[in-house]
Amino acid sequence: MRRRRLAPVLCAILAAGVAGCEGEQSALWLRGAEAERIGLLFWVTTAFLALVLVATVVAGWLAVRGSPKIRSAIADDRFVIGAGLFFPMISLAALLVWSLTVMAQRPVATDAPFAVRVVGEQWWWRVIYRLPDGTEFESANELRIPVGRPVTLTLESADVIHSFWVPNLAGKVDMIPGRANRLTLEALEAGVSRGQCAEYCGGAHALMAFHVAALDEGDFARWLAAERRPARAGDAGGAVLFRQFGCGACHRVRGMPGAAGRIGPDLTHVGSRRAIGAATLPNGAEAIARWIAENQHIKPDNRMPAYRILSPAELRRLADFLADLT
Amino acid sequence: MTGRGLVVAGLTIVAGGLAAAALFVWSGIYNVSASRQHLDVTTWILDTLRRHSVRTHSLGIAAPPLDAPGLVRLGAVHYDLACAACHGAPGRPASALADAMLPTPPPLGPAVREWSPEELSWIVLNGQKYTGMPAWVAPRRGDEVWAVVAFLRRLPQIDAAEYRRLAGLPTQSSTVRAPGIGVATDAEPMAMCRRCHGPSGARTVGPLVPPLAGQPVRYLARALSEYADGTRPSGIMQFAARGLDAAAVGRLARAFAAKASSTPSHEPDPTDPGSRIAHEGIPERGIPPCLTCHSGEADPRFPRLAGFSATYLERQLRLWRDDVRGRSGYAAIMRPIARRLDPGEAASVAAYLARLAPAGAEGGGAP
Fold first, then answer.
1. Which of A243, A244, A307 lies at the smallest CB-CB distance from B333?
2. How far does the CA of residue B266 sit from the closest CA of chain A (Å)?
């Protein structure tokens, strides 16, 4: 009776586990070279431990229920010394050597199309691309990389310790104030992964996330060409509101006079990003309007003041202007 | 008598006393009218209690310098508008209504000398129970009462002419006085504003009072309505602005803003840390440059800071920091930014902005 009741529960847990493997933030959906090596380590050690567990259970069962011959063999000194001392020593040493070799094989960025600095700030990610010709441009809370080409990230922090983690692609690397850590990402297939700050960094830590989009070569080249360009002039009325409410004091929009702020995210192409507020809301004019007026409700304690003072018409127009910055 | 007998007797006396007291209250024999003096003993108890209470409660207060420029004149105007109706003033008798109060509000000449400035400030801020003396309209603006205290300390020495000069009244009595315990005694609200903010809204009674000339109409209208409904606390301005209807608010805002002077030049001074905050902010600490929102083409609901005195700006930054000005949608923007400035930075940026007085304006303060 009890066993029959347990079965559906076990099935549900298993199903949830399997479903979790496919998530854009799952460590078991292996879509990067680093993640594959971590996955290999995980599965090999897990399989080994499972084998040892099964062998121990079987030996325990035989020690109680086995024939006298088997029971005396298990009780024999040779078995105890062999299986209890030599087997763990040899197998664990072998696993250690193997895992060290696996961990040593780091992808190397040889012909990277650009260098990227990612700076953790309370509570968002500043992303700075630097092209081989020396030009630099900034984005925020979204990283785009080409499939199949290793890209080395320099990870820094502007305030406290953060940790950069995109489980689909690689392991965690801490961002430490005053230090530049490196992480090489190589996406093996096109698609979007989600990352999350993995070190508690203050009030809005849980809402400090980001996306990494791996693009095929052609798509990537097109995106890069568009992203490095300054913003195109959009609705003039919206631009006036942007200036009038002082948005440019904190936010840069390349190509727009009076919008050179460095405090908050660069908004030059904010309309082309998947999400806003550090992957807190899916992007769109509606979401941007909500963010401007209610960001302290959506993401409490974030550094941007809530602009409740805009009339609905002003809010709509400013949000449309920003959503059009693609 | 046995021990038990004593207990019974005691309880009986207590119960009898309580019953008598209840009967006294219920019967209504006691006369609460203001037309009959207290019993001598009641007067003595209330008076002693009041003196000791004021003395004890003002122990932790430290007075700022009371000779700060313009403090006495600001206090004089507020006294004339808010206090003189009950307490009278040189050349101005108290309202007849005040004579009929119990206790009668004392004329504040020599009486003021009985109290230290700290005690006076506590009385002005908190009012007095059982006397009809109201508390300061904005309980969290203890910083404002010092103007009144500074004036009260001067009061015993001045004559009627000096009083009229300090309170910004014309030398010849031409204004109509409200006979009651009036709010504004001026028939025309504009005349009331001018007493502190100056005839053209530019030359104010002192650095605590901001010049209004050059501010956008919508900012002035917003400030007046926020004062009127208490969103922006100020015992002086809440008192002056209450009762102005929307039409009057608009008329006043337009009248002062119309006197706008030319836009000031904002040339950064790289040697001055205040200039750096005003023009560039402190990006690494999330402090945006002040002048992005507070000059030129910024939204007309934001004030233009050039021309405000350093004293006024620093005071406002402190009110933001202490969370006194924190209720409107505008406060939601300014409050977090002001709280990122430390007091030294606030002082340096206030000093820099005060130097940006609009060209052609008469300047902020005259003592």
1. A307
2. 14
